[in-house]
Design a protein that fits this description.
By secondary structure, this protein is mainly α. The chain has a single domain, classed as Alpha Horseshoe (Serine Threonine Protein Phosphatase 5, Tetratricopeptide repeat). It has seven helices and no strands. The protein is flat. The termini are far apart.
Length: 112
């Protein structure tokens, strides 16, 4: 499905926007698991909303969950209204992770 067809009637009904509002409230009260579930529902519905992707990235960043961050970025690149932004974020994240991993490997090599 392309971006345009994925954004269909569900956004018009306000479900995605309501999920984002509720997720924001939940995140503010520390209920990130419930917020994550709502935001993932938005992704399943094919949202193009950057807000959904940004909120999920905030949750996963706090958890330092690299694999979930990459998954969200891949979906954002594919379906969001601002895919170029997410391409840049992914490129920066992968580069930082690679540099960190190289640094850690070098340190371990020096310890032997």
């Amino acid at each position: 499905m392309d971006k345009k067809s994925r954004k269909g009637s569900l956004e018009h009904s306000g479900i995605i926007e309501e999920n984002e509002k509720m997720a924001g409230i939940l995140m503010g009260s520390g209920e990130t698991v419930a917020a994550e579930k709502l935001l993932n529902k938005n992704i399943e519905m094919g949202t193009g909303s950057s807000l959904t992707y940004d909120m999920l990235l905030d949750i996963y960043k706090k958890d330092s969950d690299y694999h979930k961050i990459i998954k969200v970025l891949n979906n954002a690149i594919k379906y969001s209204d601002d895919s170029q932004k997410y391409r840049k974020l992914k490129k920066g994240l992968v580069t930082r992770k690679l540099m960190h991993d190289i640094s850690m490997a070098e340190e371990k090599g020096k310890l032997k």
